[in-house]
Amino acid sequence: MLTHQDLEDMGYFEAFEENKPVNLEDYAEWVENKMITSGDKRFLENTMGLIGETGEFFEKLKKHKRDDTPLDKQGVTLEAGDMFFYFIGLLNHLDIKLTDVIKENMKKANLSIEIGIGINTGEAVIGNMGSDTRFDYSAIGDCVNTAARLESATKEVGKDILIGYSTAIDCKFRLKLLKPIINYLEDHIPNTIFGSTKV
Q: What are the structural domains of the chain?
């Protein structure tokens, strides 16, 4: 673990003496200037440093919760800084910009949760099933299996909802006939499927 004196000797605190926002690119450049190794040795140093400092960071949080003691915010802040130092060093070594990492993370976080739904109609056995050791409310039957396969096939066809023929014939919504998906539907199960469309 890097001590406070180690960080001071490295000039870690120099960049933050003035009370002003820290530019991420400037910080990344500052970290790069502190690196004294290169190649595989640099990669190993940054990787092991990140792993070690992450452990130190969570060790302080664990002590806070386990021993029910006041949170050492200064200590946690320093450990977080150590983690960030090695993290940025590793990104620099891999030629990955922190700004790109942040942009991609924000883009991913804004994505909506996508789920697939398979709908089918038919006879099934429904109710509480199992034994004293394993008891569950479930549905069993060919129509249930087909619905499960339709749900799995939503990714392949790029539709949120797939509807089996037995349901579609009595459906009053506007549907789109899709091509059969042999990979997901067994030969003995009717593979005429429909996808939902916007009305």
A: 4-109 (1.10.287.1080), 117-196 (3.30.70.1230)
